[in-house]
Amino acid sequence: MDRIPILQMGRNLLVTIQVDMQDQTALQLQDDLSAKIEATGANGVLIDISALEIVDSFIGRMLASISGIARVLDATTVVVGMQPAVAITLVELGLSLEGVRTALNVERGMKLLSAAQQDHDVDAGA
Amino acid sequence: MDRIPILQMGRNLLVTIQVDMQDQTALQLQDDLSAKIEATGANGVLIDISALEIVDSFIGRMLASISGIARVLDATTVVVGMQPAVAITLVELGLSLEGVRTALNVERGMKLLSAAQQDHDVDAGA
């Protein structure tokens, strides 16, 4: 199993990361996600990492890179569900996930995304 | 990684099954899900199996069993995202997933759940 499913919920895409990501899986996810953003016109991406007990610099870079790709495709990315121990380790390692927005859980992440979408619609004059 | 994360979205719980389930993982999921239904008062459970390329009789029974447990806890379960090839194989094997409601994708599953919740609220006189 080397493909992480991407679920569409309204204007948002939801990805739940459950497995320890290998390079290949991470690249596949980037490809799949950018294709899905283009195909669906989604402008929010929610990545749940509550199952991850370790987030190393590889995963950190991957999250930053997905967030950057989504941004140029006009979508906001929010990473949710980080375990407290993971947050502690990240900061101790000096990885601050710059450019990546976070929220405590899916519900708060969704709120953040819909607020971002309202701003976006106002800017676009919709 | 032997725990499948359960995400809460409003009155619904969302589970994305990505790995080939072992007995232990399946039992853990049943336990976690029933605890989460009780803790959150959720009355809808959405199980996404779009990543599964094979659904054998073990997974079939597990889905039926989760659906049964959720029902006695007053929650409706909908299985979404089944791949066409999986559906063909299931029927050929004589596994009809009795008692399990299905929908094409997460969005349709959510609609089904909110319809069930409206009926539920009317029945409860809410």
Quick structural summary:
Chain A is α/β, with parallel strands linked by helices.
Strands of the widest sheet of chain A, in order across it, are: 1-2-3-4-5
Q: Helix/strand/pairing class of chain A, anyone?
A: alpha/beta
**Globular, elongated, flat, extended or rod-shaped: what is the shape of chain A?**
globular
Greatest contact between two chains: A-B, 22 and 22 residues
Helix content of chain A: 40-55%
Number of extended strands of chain A: 5
CATH class of chain A: Alpha Beta
Rg of chain A, nearest Å? 14 Å
Give an overview in words.
2 copies of one chain form a homodimer. With 126 residues, chain A is an alpha/beta fold. Chain A has one domain: STAS domain (Transcription Regulator spoIIAA), CATH 3.30.750. Chain A is 48% helix and 17% strand. Chain A has 4 helices and 5 strands; from the N terminus they run ββαβαβαβα. Chain A has a 5-stranded mixed sheet, sandwiched between helices. In chain A, strand 1 and strand 2 (12-16) form a beta hairpin. In chain A, helix 1 (23-40) runs parallel beside helix 2. Chain A is globular and about 45 Å long. The model of chain A has no long low-confidence stretch (mean pLDDT 89). At the A-B interface, strand 1 and helix 4 of A face strand 1 and helix 4 of B.
Secondary-structure blueprint of this entry?
Two copies of one chain form a homodimer.
Chain A: E1 6-9, E2 12-16, H1 23-40, E3 44-48, H2 57-72, E4 76-80, H3 84-92, E5 101-103, H4 106-123
Parallel strand pairs in A: 2-3, 3-4, 4-5
Antiparallel strand pairs in A: 1-2
InterPro entries (chains A, B): Bact_StressResp_Reg, STAS_dom, STAS_dom_sf
Pfam families (chains A, B): STAS
Protein name (chains A, B): Anti-anti-sigma factor
